[in-house]
């Protein structure tokens, strides 16, 4: 059963939220953060991308950079740009993209739930990336940015969220860059707080949707603090880390597409012939063609779009991994034909989130930068949950969630 708790959030005053909030640290490069922060000293980038406070080219892993994060974090508190709530709360965070709104509950997730598998993951993590985020959590003694969870649909929580949605939010703004609406409510009512805690207690599992490295880092630092504390009781704040949990059915997962630098020495016709072993191949002409269903792929090659449909017998419907389009394309195209090796490290492939649209695939191929592009039908949240429940791991670069959580709306201090 899932254990959660409310917490005393550290938040910007209402009139400052649009100056403080930012995109998450891992969706932009250092120089993009430097440009977006500009001369805004209140931008959270000074804490989550603190290398922008050093000369161009300074490594984000320089020890001085972590120290600068802590200095900035303290300064934000000293100057009143981040102020801690007097009482423990849950919070509601809503995001609206293309007319659709999803409502998340901001919670303190239990470290032990991550360790024992109640909080389930579907991706592998890299130790170097974990350690980077662990250093950031340690030096600030806080979860400055949330992780992104999903939970099974729950009627009682849905009713609560809908009730709050009719009231005036604490924050309400349109974010630059993405252009999406972000709203935020503070839950003060003790009965509502108790209901949320109890409804989560009934859930057998929570699921990491996005932010596997942040989740691992936050949990590992919490466990580290417990081990270092000779008087550890189990109710200390470091036993929890900050997450925004959304009902699974509300989440939007976009396609996560591939662009290919070469065809492994094959001509275009040889490549298409090789594809015909496991796919039906249909030339769709020069207009952009988007996959319309599972097991259909869209290939852009030599100015034409092709529909590729996986033939029966090329995947196992009973295998939660083998049935995924990302697995089918990886096995039968990227490995069998193109011999790309480890997709996480190969320099012959790049990945493009679906928010950019298939026009971005066409642009990168037409420019000569890439030789071909492959578009996939999006993974479903149910597929992710099935894989997590089975204890298996998804192939790399399988999911792209939008909208991304904005950082800086609330911070969780570990004491």
Describe the structure in your own words:
The chain contains 13 helices and 21 strands. The protein is globular. The protein has helices at residues 17-20, 30-37, 45-48, 63-78, 111-116, 127-140, 155-165, 190-201, 212-228, 268-275, 325-335, 358-366, 381-390; strands at 4-5, 10-11, 83-84, 90-97, 100-110, 119-120, 142-143, 147-151, 171-174, 181-187, 206-210, 240-247, 253-254, 256-260, 279-285, 296-301, 304-310, 349-353, 372-375, 400-401, 412-413. With 415 residues, the chain is α+β, with helices and mostly antiparallel strands. The two termini are 25 Å apart. The strands form 5 sheets. Strands 1, 4, 5, 6, 8, 9, 10, 11 and 12 form a 9-stranded mixed beta sheet that branches. A 6-stranded antiparallel beta sheet has the order 15-17-16-19-14-18, sandwiched between helices. Strands 2-3 form a two-stranded antiparallel ribbon.
Structure at a glance:
This protein has 415 residues and is α+β, with helices and mostly antiparallel strands. It is built from 13 helices and 21 strands.
SSE blueprint:
Layout: E1 4-5, E2 10-11, H1 17-20, H2 30-37, H3 45-48, H4 63-78, E3 83-84, E4 90-97, E5 100-110, H5 111-116, E6 119-120, H6 127-140, E7 142-143, E8 147-151, H7 155-165, E9 171-174, E10 181-187, H8 190-201, E11 206-210, H9 212-228, E12 240-247, E13 253-254, E14 256-260, H10 268-275, E15 279-285, E16 296-301, E17 304-310, H11 325-335, E18 349-353, H12 358-366, E19 372-375, H13 381-390, E20 400-401, E21 412-413
Parallel strand pairs: 6-11, 8-12
Antiparallel strand pairs: 1-5, 2-3, 4-5, 4-10, 5-12, 7-21, 8-11, 9-10, 13-20, 14-18, 14-19, 15-17, 16-17, 16-19
Helix pairs in contact: 4-6, 6-9
